[in-house]
Write a structure and sequence with these properties.
The chain is α/β, with parallel strands linked by helices. The chain is built from 12 helices and 11 strands. Strand 3, helix 3 and strand 4 form a beta-alpha-beta unit. The protein binds nicotinamide-adenine-dinucleotide (NAD) and zinc ion.
């Protein structure tokens, strides 16, 4: 892996117990560090575990880190690479669909705090991203669906063709078909990030659905996966756009259709009350001078970032797209 990624020197690979046993050996690295799997381990404690292992292995600035796994491993490893000894090169080896199309590209790294998602982090571009679509064969089906939420997001932002491709490209599609889907989805992210690497403007559109999604993840105590929450967030963003007169309400139903097609939920579960979600959204980090910013959608390919959204409209949207409680 090192030479393919243009790095030489010693390497330490960070992975989790689901991915490591399958693929770590084929990466031929000097050290393997295994963190527990799951979003609840995307923490400063995991970063500390990495620092301890790197110091024990005497890895110095000539070394590099390799992140082998889903977005959690990529985000934590990237943050360790940005900070250990003031920074080392790192390589992303994404093995989940979500990490391949989104998390491994663009240089955002970080961890969650008890107060909310991704509250600590750094911009740190990987030296390379190497994704092997064959690893998707062992990805649990639910995780594949979760990744499709970000593919749909990229389709909605800038690549309508992707929305047709998801209809024919499931997890068991040929490597060639999967590769084509991935390339198109990655291209959307790459183009936006290259134009605005530090999120001064246009990059914020990549957060479509995410202000809602982060709140849904947090209030569910991460029982709802990031990708599932993003799917619900896309429905919410479309509903809010229509409610504020920016978009045709038919777009919301179309998005529900694509989510259902890839096996994702289209409504917020009843046990997550709109008021708790709104409170969580207000601590989400994408606040601008005390004002919440929302990414809305006028139409496919036409996003809009605005702070002109009342909390009342957000609550109406949350109520409209939540499942009814069984009372
Ligand atoms: N940095 C960014 O720009 C960015 C963008 C999007 C998402 N994210 C972050 O990514 C995270 C979600 O990533 P995720 O959905 O990959 O979750 P994840 O990292 O938790 O991986 C999902 C599950 O799949 C398993 N897995 C991964 N690849 C596998 C394979 N090939 N075979 C078998 N099992 C496999 C993992 O062990 C894990 O249990 C969230 O923390 C989110 O905030 C970051
Ligand atoms: Zn995301």
């Amino acid at each position: 892996v090192g030479e393919n990624a243009g790095i030489f020197g010693p390497t330490a690979l960070i992975t989790d117990p689901n991915v490591g046993p399958l693929y770590a050996e084929s990466c031929q690295t000097d050290h393997v560090i295994t963190l527990p799997a799951g979003e609840q381990y995307k923490t400063l404690a995991s970063v500390q575990t990495i620092y301890d292992a790197l110091l024990a292995a005497n890895l110095d600035r000539k070394g590099s880190l390799l992140a082998l796994g889903g977005g959690v491993i990529g985000d934590v490893t990237g943050f360790a690479a940005a900070t250990y000894l003031r920074g080392l090169p790192f390589v992303q080896l994404p093995t989940s669909l979500l990490a391949m199309v989104d998390a491994s590209v663009g240089g955002k790294t970080g961890v969650d705090l008890p107060q909310g998602k991704n509250l600590v982090g750094a911009f740190k571009q990987p030296a390379a991203v190497l994704a092997d679509v064959v690893t998707l064969q062992t990805l649990p089906a639910l995780e594949f669906s979760a990744g499709m939420a970000e593919v749909i997001k990229h389709g909605l932002l800038a690549a309508p063709a992707l929305l047709h491709q998801i209809e024919t490209t499931g997890q068991t599609a040929s490597p060639i078909a999967l590769r084509s889907l991935l390339l198109r989805a990655i291209q959307v992210k790459q183009q936006v990030v290259e134009a605005d690497p530090y999120e001064q403007g246009r990059r914020a559109t990549l957060n479509l659905g995410h202000t809602f999604a982060h709140a849904i993840e947090q209030v569910s105590h991460y029982a709802i996966r990031h990708g599932e929450a993003v799917g619900m967030g896309l429905v919410a963003a479309a509903d809010l756009s229509a409610r504020l007169g920016h978009a045709n309400p038919a777009l919301t139903d179309q998005i529900r259709g694509w989510l259902a097609q890839v096996g994702l939920p289209t409504a917020i579960p009843a046990h997550l009350p709109p008021t708790s979600l709104l409170a969580a959204m207000q601590t989400d980090k994408k606040k601008d001078a005390g004002k919440m910013r929302y990414v809305l959608l006028r139409a496919i390919g036409d996003p809009l970032v605005t702070d002109q959204v009342s909390p009342a409209a957000v609550v109406e949207t949350l109520q409209a797209i939540s499942l009814p409680t069984n009372s």
